[in-house]
Amino acid sequence: LRAAWSTYIGVPASSGDGYIGLRLLGAVSLKGIGMQDIGEAVWLSSNDADISVVDEEKALLQLLQQERHRTAARSVSVANADFDRGVSDLVVCAEQNANAPMILVGEWDPISEEVRRPIRLDGVDAERYGLAMPLTMQNVETHSVAYQKLYRTLSRIETLPSFSADAIRHNANFSGFIIGATVEPL
User: What b/e readout covers 95-116, taking b as 16+ CB neighbours within 10 angstroms?
Assistant: First the structure.
């Protein structure tokens, strides 16, 4: 549902004369609970919004996160059309419980759901650059600036082929996080 002020994932209201629009606003850190996503729910009539059908069969939370990233990407590209490519959010992912841990860091493309121009770091590299292992949200938050600087430097030298974010999401051996304005699970 595309309203004049924002875009929502919509569900038809039980009365049949409107829609319940949902969108994620961001994440907050709640004492004792940790990082939690917060959202907005609104009622919209068909006159309030342009309606298009989502053809993807994904969980509602995943659709909401995808739309939030698309909206953020659109607003950044409009506001910073001539800005350097350093604006991109990063994806940091690592293989869990591996004898020789491997970290992948790449640019997050929320529209295609791809990790682009990834670099690979092994356990020795992680130790050399002072990156904490295993990869947890807290460790990534603590070292987010280091990941960004390291990526800017190493991605100029050599990168790997792009890969789908779903390859990480649906692999129990990997954990991944997106570094943007905040750090959130992939």
Answer: beeeeebebbbbbbbbeeebbb
